[in-house]
Amino acid sequence: MYQSYPGGAPSPEQYGQPAAPIPQSVTRAVQLMYAGAVASLIGIVIGLTTTGSLRSAIEKRSPTMTAAHVTDAVHLEIGFAIVGGLIGAGLWIWMAQSNKAGKNWARILSTVLFAISTISTLASLAGSALAGGGVSRIYGILVWLIGLAAIILLWKRSSTDYFKSAPRY
Questions:
Q1: What is the rounded distance in angstroms from the CA atom of residue 77 to the CA atom of residue 60?
Q2: What pLDDT is stored for residue 3 in this prediction?
Q3: pLDDT tens string 61-92
Q4: Could you give the CA distance from residue 137 to residue 62 in angstroms, rounded to a whole number?
Q5: Residue 50 covered by a domain
Q6: Fewer Cβ atoms within 10 Å of its own Cβ: the N or the C terminal residue of the chain?
Q7: SS3 state at 9
Q8: 77: domain range?
Q9: Residue 75: inside a domain
Q10: Confidence class of residue 2 from pLDDT cuts 50, 70 and 90?
């Protein structure tokens, strides 16, 4: 016997349209997003290995700080790097899964997050970021390039057609 979905809404199978196959552009974008998640986690390790340059940057920026205050500032920056990297990896994974499912809001949110990343990367290149020597900046550009490629793929015609054909439930 057939039972309707709770609330009387039809089940996804009742929409009468088969799920559209995922185009290669979306599949590649999703793969790049998973690579971005891995890159974010690797970025944490890179950040931890550059604490010496971080300490030097803090001492140069604030020469009146005591050694204890510099150590506290280094620990705070490391904590922010770890938390930021974990949040970044989580966002990459969430956006990958949501875009793969054909959720148009995820494509838009991915674009907004990429715009924020662009501003952050430009600020880092301009030297306004306290942490990160050359290695961190270069790695940041690599992660940004992964995001750029994913966004370009998400806005290709085949991807747009996929997002438009996704069921709205």
A1: 15
A2: 57
A3: 888 999 899 889 889 988 988 999 999 999 99
A4: 21
A5: yes
A6: N
A7: coil
A8: 23-165
A9: yes
A10: low
